[in-house]
Amino acid sequence: MDIVFIRQLRLPAWIGLYRHEKIAPQTIEIDLEIDLPEDAVFKTGKVGDTIDYGVVVEHIRALLAKERFGLVESLAERIASLLMEDFNSPHVKVSVAKLGALRESQRVGVTIERPKSRA
Fold first, then answer.
1. What is the CATH number of the domain that holds 79?
2. Which residue among the candidates 43, 66, 98, 116 is catalytic per the annotation?
3. Is residue 98 among the annotated active site residues?
4. Angle between helix 72-87 and helix 53-66 axes, rounded to 10 deg
5. Domain count, the chain
6. To pair with 114 at 20 to 30 A between CA atoms, which of 17, 87, 88, 93?
7. Cβ-contact 3, 34 below 8 angstroms
8. Residue 13 contacts residue 69 (beta carbons within 8 Å)
9. Could you list the residue range(s) of the whole structural domain that residue 27 is in?
């Protein structure tokens, strides 16, 4: 299994169910593990044969700009679907955390894994 990963990606998102969460975007933190659909990049060394993490971030940024989410679970599922559809990844692991949502914790959130067959 060959994976492109992104750690501690912090982006603004409209997320939450409570009234105080609906008045302004919150910063969320995303960790991603994206399985490569094939191993061609190891032979060619070309970015076109891998998953470009810069493009991944652009796609997620665009998603967050146009959609609102009630639950971190919904956002994680949406990101997983996007990665499998847009980048043809056969398997992804997505973690989404809200920062400072609980006074007693730095982060709260969810981690999901999705194989392509489930998408």
1. 3.30.1130.10
2. 98
3. yes
4. 130
5. 1
6. 17
7. yes
8. yes
9. 3-118
